[in-house]
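Team,

Forwarding the record for the chain on the shared tracking sheet. I've put the sequence and predicted structure together so nobody has to dig through attachments.
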Amino acid sequence: MDIVVYVLLAVILALGAALAIVLARRADSRAQGALADTVQRVEHSLREQERTLAGLVNERLDRSEKAQAEPAAKLARITETVERLEKRQQAAMAAPAVPAAANPDVTGSIQTSKEETRLPVAEGWRLRDFYQGRALVESRNGILFDIGPGSNLPGLGRVETIKRENGRLVVVAKNGVIIALSEERRPPYVPYRY
């Protein structure tokens, strides 16, 4: 009987092992199926991400190509313009100057004399003093102005220059000139000391 028990035990153990193997295979096949489903989902997700990334990369490349094309086109237009201007300049320099036919009626322009272009003398204004490129002038109303080039005088406009002309000091403004009196400038008063 001992042998029979051992044989039965061996058979039970063998059947148990076979059952365990079958159950393990079923569990493995289920796990493999679940794993296969997961792998397929991941592959699908990766393909979608790859398409999205490819679209973004293509979009960025298109933008960068356009951004590079615009300055290149502007540079090309500028280069063409410069070349045209250089050709015009060379053509103008190369073309000989054609003298105008002498017309006996045309004698030339008349140059105006210095006196004709001279500004009028401002009536009522007096140049009182001159120092360090500035002048002290008195208006018609007795108001004193300390002026220099660029100053504005009422009625005469902007002062263009203060200069010595024909031995006289002259203030040249936009609308007239102020001329100093012919009297000589006296030295400042220095009191006599005892």
